[in-house]
Amino acid sequence: MSLNKTYNTIVGGVEYIDEGARILKEGGLVAFPTETVYGLGADAFNERAVLSIFEAKGRPQDNPLIVHFASVEDVKMAVSHIPDVAYKLWEEFSPGPLTLVLPKNDRLPLVTTAGIQTVGIRIPNHPVALELIKKSGTGIAAPSANTSGRVSPTLSAHVYEDMVGKIPLILEGGQTDIGIESTVLDLTKDTPIVLRPGAVTIEMLANVLGKVINHKGEVVVAEAPGMKYKHYAPICPCVGAKSVESALKVYAENDGAVIVGRDSFLKDIPACIKTRSLGESPKECMRSVFTLLRELEKEYKYIIIEDFSDKENYYALYNRLKKTTGGVVC
Ligand code: AMP
Ligand code: MG
Predict the structure, then answer these.
(1) Index of the ligand 1 atom closest to the CA of residue 118
(2) Which pTM does this prediction carry?
(3) What is the average per-residue pLDDT within 108-130?
(4) Which amino acid residue places its CA nearest to atom 22 of ligand 1?
(5) C-alpha distances out from residue 107 to 23, 52, 77, 112, Å
């Protein structure tokens, strides 16, 4: 993989999986669908290949990558010790949108984990991802396949926008089902800690583990490395709105604005005002949020989005939107 090379980027379906596996084995980059968002993959054990992920994304090198495997058995390639609770969690949630932070072994290069002695491991629940990983015969380091700081890709077209010319192949998989990134759970501490909320909720984890420290810090607030960077930012200004009234006020003050929220938030807004719905349930909102932001940043000049900071069951969504708005609420 040459960092300066320009590629004639192909977007291809399942018939390109063999080609994808070949590129990965040779140290190249391949974007692929997962059930969360599209990933930008490289052989996790090939330092040069991993470095080219950081290069293609413009990602800071102190932000660790998640390593993806096709089976629990294969995880041993990258970790030095697997606690019993990990097996319990995998039984329940794997393949699926749960990343477990475990101690890394010496074989896994430090560039992959941004210099730390632990590694985030995930088994994605997507047939294309699983087959690609299986055929590559290795662990695949894969962050979201967007330029660093931009909204995560939920369609192959989003990946194309950010990665055209930079990588040889994007595997097609339609719109991603979950729509936001995995839950990250650190198993290297006495009590498991959620570092990033996601579709596998705190309650689901607590049911298996008995006790878990939630990301909001009911016991302790833990910040995952990499969370300080601005993520998920659309190319136009975006603010949160505490109420419909404040949303309408900001709307009136800004040309080309749109109000985004749940159906229940939008229901009393007059039809002459431009609005777009995220859906209603947490699942619907997570699935649509990045797709919608990608669309709206092209159509509108200002995005006003319902504030979810105090809304129970929407923690994972709020965690992303806080970064989209930079925490600005009207
Ligand atoms: P993404 O940007 O979606 O690829 O997710 C990577 C994120 O997962 C990082 O920014 C961290 O927040 C978290 N993560 C990955 N590996 C680790 C690790 N070893 N320890 C703690 N958090 C991790
Ligand atoms: Mg990302």
Answers:
(1) 19
(2) 0.79
(3) 98
(4) 224
(5) 21, 19, 8, 11
